Amino acid sequence: MGAQGNPPPFQGHRLATATKSPCEKVIRRDIARTYPEHEFFKEKDGLGQESLFNVIKAYSLHDREVGYCQGSGFIVGLLLMQMPEEEAFAVLVKIMEDYRMRDMFKPTMAELGLCMYQLENLVAEQLPDLNQHFQSQNFHTSMYASSWFLTLFTTALSLPMACRIMDVFLSEGMEIIFKVALAMLTLGKEELMSLDMEGMLKYFQKELPARAESDPEALMQLAYTMKYNAKKMKKLEKEYVVIKTKEQEEMAELKRLRQENKQLRHRCEMLEEESRALADRLVKGQVSRAEEEETTFVVQRELDVLRHTHLETTHQLALANEKIRSLSLMMEETQTSRQSSIEEITLKQEQLQQREEMIECLQEELVKVRLREAENDALIRDLRSRIHELEEDKKTLREITPDNSVAHLQEELIAVKLREAEANLSLKDLRHRVTELSNQWQRHLQEHKQEPVNSGEAHSTPKKLLLWNWRLKFK
Length: 475
Prior knowledge:
About 85% of the residues lie in helices and about 0% in strands. It has helices at about 10-15, 25-30, 40, 45-60, 70-80, 85-100, 100-105, 110-125, 130-135, 140-150, 160-170, 175-185, 190, 195-215, 215-225, 230-400, 405-450, 455-460, 460-475. The relative contact order is 0.04.
């Protein structure tokens, strides 16, 4: 058994609180749906839900083969209503290992299938009409009885009734579950015979439990009257094992045959593909052979033509070589001429660059001269304004001051007029220089149009020389 070798139940429960279970998320999800209306389990993350979580988690760690299965939470919840966590865990371990419930909750659920087979045979024997009706509606036993066996009627009946069945179950084992199941089917036989599959499902969910709860004592008395033959149940168990073994063998044989069939189909497809490939190769080979023969004939004719063409080409090649030699000589001459042309172009570019520099220099000097002319005009205006002021002052002084200060003012007026005369001369000189610059600019434009070539000027620096000459003139 998968649970053998584990620590004792109480010790296993204590160890579970410090160990993480792979089923924790599923357990947390399901405990909120376990007795949601009961006061002990109603509060989320309350004492009841935590106790339920601890016990289920402890068992999932205690028996890792079974782990956690939906339905076990209702059994644990019923136990926690009667006892503390440690005792509930111990009773759960006992129920699982000694009352066939461990095999019921294994991943294969083989024990549940056996119970369904045994119950179906009991129904066929004791309630043949109802069994025939179930078969006519294709209503399988697992559709209504699975939860009865997985939860021991804790989800189908009220808590007092479920507690009573649990007491008998702990005393007599799985026998009471079969008897209660037969008793409930007997109670609802008349109604079930008149319902279809959907109606029967609804009847098993609501009306049948309510009818059983209306008289719990009558249900238990009826359950005790149900026939249960342990030897026959063992015989049914052996039959079920044989049937399942045969089904497994048939499934294995069917799986093997399907695999072989798949392999044979694959092999047939491969052979057909090879056959098609061989046929294609044969046809292609015959076509290629005919094409090769035709190609050989064509190539032979082309070869004769090529031989004749080769002779002509050889003669033409000799003529072409001679022409190449003459062209090479012409290219050498052209290269020499091209080199001299490049030198001339380079020289002209340099001259053009020098002329552009001279133009820029003349433009700069012209701007400077015009600026000085504007400054002199402003100076003359200032001097004239000053003379006018002095003349006004002179008139005023003649009226106020004695004759000896008149001579002083006349001398000052003479000095101002001298300065005005010097400024006029300077302005005249500047205008003359502007005229000279304009004439030089016109001459430069005419020379630029004629494009004279002067090798001596090509290597001079006209901009620097022109600047130097103008500076000497203005000093």
